[in-house]
């Protein structure tokens, strides 16, 4: 039996409602459980957990992106960009990715009938982003998009002033440094890592090669430019994966929130984009080779460690400020 408390404090679950988190609930009230789920289905569509890895990255990109896209060491899952575009914009709105890599945000935006532009520091990735946009248009995408090659820490010097206050949504993710990414193939000595670099590692303009403090400083500058371009009520969505360096947690999501605050943005939500598929009540993780290897080593040496199967999604809007007559305006 499910225990039913006599009194329920404000904010507590309704005791007459089976707790859907309790395994006993479904057994004791199968009919009511289904009824509960049915009634709440509409709410569930707006969950803070985004089911963005129901299919693998290669399956999500197949036919939608040019094959060279795979060379980029840290592509965003297309379903993450598509979810953000669907949740925060309407057709015709303008979307920006100031670190657009191979153009995932832009491709998903133009397929959804939004216009988009992106900045990318490395010519090899901005060329692929251009190719992906052409590919999207060849396959029926209706939105317009363009890519500017340059350093997004100087965003306002790269884009026309006329775009100030015009952007409805920014979707982006910072680079995580050279240790996390890449592909592997078997070799005589085990495995060989490849496609794990943004460039040859000498150009400090690429934020990938700065330490966490340098990355956070550069990212705050980029977000400051984004805030200037954002329209009133516009939204900034940043995905960042917590990762580990020599077994120690590098808390990139917290650094992103701090960078957003320094840029004058207001954090409004923290969601989770799953890097695991939901299947028959279970999560099927889609980890990289390196993540698996690190977790296996830690567990073998007696350190209990969870496999990271999500990205944090940090969501900001523009700060409201007071005008001279005391009314609240959006900065
Ligand atoms: C995590 S990746 C973004 C990947 C992208 N979302 C995609 O799906 O392809 C970060 C990107 O930022 C670029 N980048 C690094 N520093 C930059 C800067 N100062 N200005 C513009 N882009 C930069 C990197 O070259 C890399 O392509």
UniProtKB/TrEMBL annotation:
<dbReference type="Pfam" id="PF01555">
    <property type="entry name" value="N6_N4_Mtase"/>
</dbReference>
<feature type="domain" description="DNA methylase N-4/N-6">
    <location>
        <begin position="45"/>
        <end position="129"/>
    </location>
</feature>
<dbReference type="GO" id="GO:0016423">
    <property type="term" value="F:tRNA (guanine) methyltransferase activity"/>
</dbReference>
<protein>
    <recommendedName>
        <fullName>Methyltransferase</fullName>
        <ecNumber>2.1.1.-</ecNumber>
    </recommendedName>
</protein>
<dbReference type="InterPro" id="IPR001091">
    <property type="entry name" value="RM_Methyltransferase"/>
</dbReference>
<comment type="similarity">
    <text>Belongs to the N(4)/N(6)-methyltransferase family.</text>
</comment>
<keyword id="KW-0808">Transferase</keyword>
<dbReference type="GO" id="GO:0008170">
    <property type="term" value="F:N-methyltransferase activity"/>
</dbReference>
<keyword id="KW-0489">Methyltransferase</keyword>
<dbReference type="InterPro" id="IPR029063">
    <property type="entry name" value="SAM-dependent_MTases_sf"/>
</dbReference>
<dbReference type="GO" id="GO:0030488">
    <property type="term" value="P:tRNA methylation"/>
</dbReference>
<feature type="region of interest" description="Disordered">
    <location>
        <begin position="1"/>
        <end position="33"/>
    </location>
</feature>
<dbReference type="InterPro" id="IPR002941">
    <property type="entry name" value="DNA_methylase_N4/N6"/>
</dbReference>
<dbReference type="GO" id="GO:0003677">
    <property type="term" value="F:DNA binding"/>
</dbReference>
């Amino acid at each position: 039996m499910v225990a039913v408390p006599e009194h329920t404090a404000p904010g507590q679950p309704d005791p007459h409602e089976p707790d859907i988190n309790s395994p006993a609930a479904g057994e004791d009230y199968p009919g009511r459980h289904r009824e509960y789920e049915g009634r709440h289905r509409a709410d569930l569509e707006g969950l803070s957990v985004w089911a963005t890895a129901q299919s693998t990255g290669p399956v999500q990109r197949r036919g939608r992106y040019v094959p060279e896209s795979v060379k980029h060491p840290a592509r965003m899952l297309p379903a993450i960009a598509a979810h953000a575009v669907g949740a925060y914009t309407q057709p015709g709105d303008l979307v920006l990715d100031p670190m657009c890599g191979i153009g995932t945000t832009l491709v998903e935006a133009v397929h959804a009938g939004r216009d988009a532009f992106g900045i990318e520091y490395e010519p090899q990735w901005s060329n692929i982003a251009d190719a992906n946009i052409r590919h999207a248009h060849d396959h029926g995408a209706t939105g317009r998009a363009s890519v500017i090659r340059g350093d997004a820490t100087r965003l306002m010097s790269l884009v026309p002033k006329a775009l100030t206050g015009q952007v409805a949504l920014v979707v982006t993710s910072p680079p995580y440094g050279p240790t996390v990414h890449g592909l592997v193939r078997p070799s005589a000595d085990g495995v060989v890592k490849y496609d794990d670099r943004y460039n040859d590692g000498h150009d400090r303009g690429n934020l990938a090669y700065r330490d966490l403090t340098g990355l956070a400083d550069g990212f705050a500058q980029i977000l400051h430019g984004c805030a200037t371009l954002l329209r009133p009520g516009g939204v900034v969505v940043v995905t960042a994966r917590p990762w580990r360096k020599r077994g120690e947690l590098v808390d990139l999501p917290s650094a992103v929130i701090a960078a957003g605050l320094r840029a004058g943005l207001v954090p409004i939500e923290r969601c989770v984009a799953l890097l695991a598929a939901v299947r028959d009540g279970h999560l099927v993780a889609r980890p990289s080779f390196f993540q698996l290897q690190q977790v296996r080593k830690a567990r073998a040496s007696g350190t209990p460690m969870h496999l990271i199967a999500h990205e944090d999604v940090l969501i900001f809007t523009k700060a409201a400020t007071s005008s001279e007559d005391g009314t609240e305006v959006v900065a």
